[in-house]
Amino acid sequence: MSSAGQSTNLIPGHSSNRKRRRVMVAPSFAPPTPASNLPQRRRVSRIDRRSRLFPLLEASSLPIPEISAEPLQFPSADPSTAPSLTPDPSILPARQPQFTRTITHGLPDYECQFCGARFWYEERLSRHRSTTPIYTMCCQKGRVRLPFLQETPPYLEQLLGINGGPMAVHFREHIRSYNAAFSFTSFGAQLDARASRTRGPYSFVICGENYHCMGSLLPVDGQRPRYSQLYVFDPHTELADRLHHFSLPDASLRPDIVSGLMKLFDVTNELVKSFRRIRSQLADPVTANMRLRIVGARDTTNRQYDLPTGSELAGLIPGDFVPDKGERDIIIDHRSEGLKRITSVNPKFDALHFPVLFPYGEDGFHVQIPYDPVHVPATLKRKYITQREYYAFRLQHRDDEGQTLMRGGKALQHYIVDAFSTVEQNRLYYLRTHQEELRAELYQGLTDAFDRGDVTGDDVGHVVLPSSYTGSPRYMKQLYLDAMAVVHHHGSPDLFITFTCNSQWPEITESFRELCGTRSELKPQIVARVFRMKLNDLEDELTRSQFFGKTVAGIKTVEFQKRGLPHVHILLWLDEKHKLNSAVDIDATITAELPDPEQDPVGYEMATKFMLHGPCGSDNPSNVCMKDGSCSKIFPKSFNSETTTDQYGYTVYRRRDTGISAPKGSAVLDNRYIVPYNRNLLVLFQAHINVELCHQGRLIKYLFKYITKGPDRSMVVAESHDQPSSSSTVTGPPPPIDEIK
């Protein structure tokens, strides 16, 4: 966990001309510290690393304890009868004077010394003080070396420009539709429409298996051409055909933009040039029955980083000839019904589907991209870069690289989701085909069959995902057992904290503003990176800085909401001397009331901005929390003069009728709508941070099952089916090879 520190932290300058500092304004009560040219950053200690924060016992041999719920003993709130309950600041650091400082990291002004990717100082590899930080997220310290993307063509630059006028605004808003109008391949995954109906930033969400398909060179008689056929069919009707297939329900594609992109790709895109040449050859009766091969292999001997020539990229082969087809080649029939699934390791996999993001038809990932021999350690056996390493390199901002991809907005979201799902599917394929090497037969024995309830043996032979695969049943089960082992050793946790990303953090809105604007959905990779830095800061505050007191154990799980913003659930165990054992202790640490705007204007502003629930109920019956006519979060709460516990062991926080309220939407909300929080933590991070007391015994199993439940449909099993041959043709979506259940 990274430290926020209580003194002013200065980030040293670096060799580039964009020297900046990360400044954290010290609270008024902190003593001044001498200036230094080195950062006062504490070393990270991850909250969920085994044997770091707490000794983790062998979970499989431990019984899950039965914990009885004992109600808290709340003393009287009358000062005359409870004089000994005055908080001791030396015991609870959270009861320090009110913070006015916030944690900020500035702009990503540091560069990778190997590839030039832009980073924040806090993203460096080593947490020790250094004026020359090293980063590995981009190129693995120079091991991965790829050709930089070319500069954006002038016409596309005009469409992607932030200040490009109404035409550019229209294009960026509907960029996925314009990309689909020129795509050579169709997208096979099912889109999750629920994500577009929720509040918050735009999110591109898919369900099920992801794949790309291509049709034949020419459409069947009587059908309109689609996708790659549009580049080969009648040029006189091409514009009308593109507008017909990709019209929008709320706004049609603009003919002037479509026409401009047609002219642009005819000049710049090597794939388009290849298909245009085929058009004239197919008109010749001698070559009418031909097929197109898009070559998957690349010559890596001498010019491994050069763009392929047109003849190397694609070629016509006789339709009745059975070619020596490489497993990574794409063969397109002359005229046929249905679609064919194309391989994700063909170099043109990305360029075929994202012509707007790759206007030159650049090569993407293929299995023959070698590591840079200068930076490869002698102990590394692998010779070629992995698919994940390729996409990690591509999704970086570099000053010397073309920015078409990074300015893709909604199309960039599509590209990232497509890349992630492709990497995951290839991992699943590897697990399915390497069961013996992975010793997966240990998971297919009698123990697993008994646990599943199998008594007939019909399911013997199924491919089972090991616990090393993130999200698999065994992965989640081991996390749950590990968590219960912590309970067995340390007892019940004390605090349950939910920390949600703020899309308006200046690190998100101001980073690369000149390229991507300020909206978080236009730069999802920046959102993830900033949240990770903030989470490191929060973890360090909770442990090294002992924000709530000495912490003896902790567990966290990070989730991504349907609307795209990540959040984390954290469980903390406090040392015995720092536990919240009385109502006074709880009120000094957790509040469910609005601060006085005159006495604490900063706290009031943060609480009204981040911690007000709703409005819901009769004020807003369509709010997302409304279920069957009532709020699923049980708001509004009742006024309560003191903190108590209810009959189920839940803490009922103090919510006095102070007369303080705040407008939100069309309603005016008071303390009954406040989500419990810690005032200083809220001001420090300027985001939604819900802090709850959770040491009541009957809540423990629910909490741990909740934080280890995984994503929707997380019970994952890969099943093997008969795989169709590479030359077979299917109608509609192809049958699945790996089935995700």
UniProtKB/TrEMBL annotation:
Residue ranges for the region (Disordered) are 1-44, 70-94, 717-741
Instruction: Enumerate the Pfam families for this protein.
Output: Helitron_like_N (PF14214)
Where does the source fall among the domains of life? Eukaryota
The chain positions of domain C2H2-type read 110-136
Compositional bias per record (Pro residues), positions renumbered to this chain: 732-741
Q: Where is the composition biased (Polar residues)?
A: 1-10
The opening ranks of the lineage are:
Eukaryota, Viridiplantae, Streptophyta, Embryophyta, Tracheophyta
What name does the UniProt record give this protein?
A: C2H2-type domain-containing protein
PANTHER family to which the protein is assigned, alphabetical: ATP-DEPENDENT DNA HELICASE, DNA BINDING PROTEIN-LIKE
